[in-house]
Design brief:
This protein has two domains: about 5-70 and about 370-410, Urease, subunit C, domain 1 (Roll); about 75-360, TIM Barrel, CATH 3.20.20. The protein is built from 15 helices and 16 strands. The protein has helices at about 90-95, 100-105, 110-120, 120-140, 155-170, 195-210, 230-240, 255-265, 275-285, 295-300, 305-310, 335-345, 350-355, 355-360, 390-395, and strands at about 5-15, 35-40, 45-50, 60-65, 70, 75, 140-145, 175-180, 215-220, 245-250, 270, 290, 320, 380-385, 400-405, 410. The strands form two sheets. Strands 1, 2, 3, 4, 5, 14, 15 and 16 form an eight-stranded mixed sheet that branches. α5 (about 155-170) packs parallel to α6 (about 195-210) and α6 (about 195-210) runs parallel beside α7 (about 230-240). The chain is globular. The chain binds N-(iminomethyl)-L-glutamic acid and fe (iii) ion (FE).
């Protein structure tokens, strides 16, 4: 039995007496807090909290949080953390006027990353991804989803998923693995799309299933990548192996991706830089969560997703980083929150709900993490002394985390 007591906190943020559910619409502006409070973590889980009048006197380790907020760690439900190399040469092409789609059509983009990943040994990939994980934990991330999708052949997709499996085994934070073989059509199948889809369905999926390497399946359903019809076939195959869908949709255009995800009961449809009234209506009639990745819109100069419209219509919204070398070379959740507030007019409370409870539900971990509630993992961050929680998105680019505690241990 080991215990850690945090005492004297200015407030516990996102604190709940009862089990939480996904936060939607007008509820998103409500962020429950408990002022002048303590929090106890025993054997890796949150067991008790209260106001300072009732603070326990003893614990194996006591942390003083005077002047500081104690919050659940961020839940980053969409990343491509495993990759071989950065792509700043494409960054320069875009500065000179080439678009992301033009670069992709010329064999750059995802195919550029695939060439480099195929050539990189598994150990080196693990090392690079592990270092990125440590970096994002330092920003306060305490649960994360990681996708494959830079292998684009059976050996290399399996290699990526095994790297994710090994990270899962060693990681102090919970991780979900997503199979994204349908990220792009690889160069060798350029004139044989059906051949690649067949490989995905009949070669990759059975092996991934046999080794238990994935929790979810993803498809880049967008202009120039996979059509809604192809997406449907791939998601159905995934479902036959027990993999629920979390898909890339409507980053580059209104392409039917949202509807394809909803039709296949996707847990989430992610991106939605292009999202009209029909897409919002479709999401309202579903259990699929819209996940917004504003640092991708920031980096590529795309329109921002209509978060305000979505929340005002009653939808839940999740925020994630999309950390990847092509469209979002940053895994910094606090910056995502700043963009959500500044560019999408989300309130600080809405952004924090989107990045904690809703992010956890987008990984089916809503009853494990994403809130301060009894029984959850003891994954919390203690801020530096700051005047309010709105200060976090307000002071964009800043570093507000003083201590990250994972399963009751200082990281
Ligand atoms: O989520 N849009 C598809 N996939 C990634 C980017 C992939 C890349 O450019 O390497 C994304 O933005
Ligand atoms: Fe992505």
């Amino acid at each position: 039995m080991s215990s850690l007591l945090i005492r004297g906190a200015k407030a516990l943020v996102q604190v709940h007496e009862h089990p939480v559910s996904l936060v939607k619409g007008a509820q998103m502006a409500h962020l429950p807090t408990l002022e002048n409070a303590w929090l106890l973590i025993e054997n890796e889980r949150i067991t008790a909290f209260g106001t300072m009048e009732t603070c326990p006197e003893r614990a194996d380790e006591i942390v003083d949080a005077s002047g500081r907020y104690v919050m659940p760690t961020w839940c980053d439900s969409h990343t491509h953390l495993v990759f071989a190399a950065s792509r700043e040469e494409e960054f320069t092409y875009r500065i000179k006027g080439m678009s992301y789609e033009e670069i992709a059509q010329n064999g750059g983009g995802i195919l550029n990353s695939a060439r480099k990943l195929r050539a990189m040994p598994e150990e080196a990939l693990f090392e690079a991804a592990w270092n990125r994980l440590q970096e994002v934990i330092g920003y306060g991330t305490g649960a994360i989803e990681i996708k494959s999708g830079y292998g684009l052949n059976t050996d290399s997709e399996l290699k990526m998923l095994r790297v994710i499996r090994d990270i899962k085994a060693k990681s102090p934070i919970p991780i979900k693995a997503t199979f994204l073989g349908a990220h792009a059509i690889p160069a060798e199948y350029k004139s044989d799309r059906e051949g690649y889809i067949d490989l995905l369905i009949n070669d990759m999926l059975p092996q991934i299933h046999a080794e238990g390497l994935a929790d979810y399946i993803d498809v880049f359903c967008d202009r120039g990548f996979f059509t809604p019809e192809e997406t449907g076939r791939i998601l159905e195959a995934g479902l036959r192996y027990g993999l629920k869908a979390k898909i890339h949709a409507n980053e580059l255009g209104i392409t039917g991706g949202v509807q394809a995800g909803v039709r296949h009961n996707a847990i989430s449809v992610d991106h939605l830089e292009h999202c009209g009234d029909e897409e919002i209506e479709c999401l309202l009639n579903s259990n699929t969560i819209p996940t917004l990745l504003p640092s991708c819109a920031f980096f590529l100069g795309l329109p921002y997703p209509p978060a305000r419209k979505m929340i005002d219509a009653g939808l839940p919204v999740t925020l994630a980083t999309d950390y990847n070398p092509g469209s979002t070379p940053s895994g910094k959740m606090p910056f995502v929150l700043s963009l959500a507030c500044i560019k999408m007019k989300m309130l600080p409370e809405e952004a924090i709900n989107a990045a904690t409870i809703n992010g956890a539900f987008a990984m089916e971990m809503g009853h494990e993490t994403g809130s301060i509630a009894r029984g959850n993992w003891g994954n919390v961050m203690i801020t530096k002394p700051i005047p309010s929680v709105a200060y976090i998105p307000y002071s964009f680019g800043g570093d507000h985390v003083e201590t990250v505690i994972l399963k009751g241990k200082k990281h």
